[in-house]
Amino acid sequence: MKTSAASEARSSPSSARSGQTLEAGVNYRFVDADQHLYEPPDAYSRHLEQKYSSRALTLGPGIAPGAQRWLFDGESVLPDHYERVMEPGAWKRVFSHTGEGKVWESDDVVIHPWERHPEITHRDGRLAWMDEHNIEATVLIPTAVCDTLASCGDMPLFYAHMRSFNRYLEDDWGYRHRNRIFAVPQLSLDDPELAIEELDRLIRAGTRFVLLPPCCGACNISPGDPRFDPFWERLVEAAVIPVIHLSGHSPYWEYAGRWGEPTQGYPVTDAGTPRFTAFQEYLAFVDRPIMDYIAALILHNLFGRVPGLRVMIVENGIGWVPYLLTQLDKCYRMAWDSPWLGGRPRDLPSELFKRHFYLSPFLGDRIVETMRLLGPGRLMLGTDFPHPEGVTEPADFLAELAGQPETVVKSFMRDTAAELYGLQA
């Protein structure tokens, strides 16, 4: 992996461990709300119950020579991120809104993570990388999430794959490794009973977080529907935080067909990059799915029934926040005397949003303006390491906060996420 001379000169792992920092004037370590792992070939099969082995999610040949893709029942269901991937930070210009921001692939930005990059594939290597980059703790989120299997027509099989993956996480990463790496297991609300069964097991295993997709899944039921209240209540009782992360599995794919677009992505490149049209990117990624998901939680009154719930919104940016809050408040007032699934919320949606949600912006988002809108302690650092759309230097975000009071900067770089993680002040 490429490392800049400036970053090499700033610090060493030993100085970061002792609490000294990479940046002058910063005397604390950062807490990251968005890091990822790349899965090994047996992530879904290692602990899959024997009765499901004939339909295991496995790796098979990809389109490009040497590439591999995740297969289910012989059909490709996910792009693979195993043999060759875009190096961390390769798409920084796209997500920081600078220059032309074109996404490209070439030999100088493609790496083989399992061959030479333990910081990407193993927890000891990740801890060393975190020390080098002044990171105290992070969540660790899957890359190849199996939520596409929700539509396979076999809920027990779908949940069996999630259970298998979660046990792999326990083996290789741990849910609270040294209180620094918080691996995030997968869950889904498609079957409430199976979801609570696995959630109870995860709570016993010590998880602090669970990953949920920003959509209603195959059940076509709002996540704010009262029938899911026992699941959300269990999260609050166990102090487990749901993490809603960008997902490639979206009902908007089907809707794309109404606009003359394909209802699925184009074949991935040999470096694992999904290929979509610009319209598909607009329709099915980031803004629209996450806004609808949040609207369902708020307008279906989940927080009126489960007031202690806190939700992390990760790798969905924040550009949509002002628009969403304005629209939700308007719709709330317009529909005052209409039927309300789950009951009418007592407070304005914008106030509920500010009370219950925590977000990680993209580099280049309007961080300071959004902080002023939401109030203190709602935005937090998210590097997205080691994905190409993220950053390799968490300190890059300090420039976004130039001129802000130190308490505001520290809240973003550490304190907000640290409180959610249960770390000491």
What does this structure look like?
The structure is a single chain. It contains 18 helices and twelve strands. The strands form four sheets. The chain has a four-stranded parallel beta sheet. Strands 1-7-8 form a three-stranded parallel beta sheet. Strands 2-3-4 form a three-stranded antiparallel beta sheet, with no helix packed on it. Helix 7 links the parallel strand 7 and strand 8.
Mean pLDDT value: 86
Shape verdict: globular
- The tally of beta strands, per DSSP, is 12
Order of secondary-structure elements: HHEEEEEHEHHHEHEHEHEHHHHEHHEHHH
How many DSSP H or I helices?
Answer: 18
How is the secondary structure organized here?
Elements: H1 5-10, H2 13-17, E1 30-36, E2 58-61, E3 68-72, E4 75-78, E5 85-86, H3 92-95, E6 110-111, H4 113-116, H5 118-121, H6 123-132, E7 135-141, H7 155-172, E8 181-183, H8 192-205, E9 209-212, H9 229-237, E10 241-245, H10 252-256, H11 278-284, H12 287-299, H13 302-305, E11 311-314, H14 321-334, H15 349-356, E12 357-359, H16 367-374, H17 396-400, H18 406-421
Parallel strand pairs: 1-7, 7-8, 9-10, 10-11, 11-12
Antiparallel strand pairs: 2-3, 3-4, 5-6
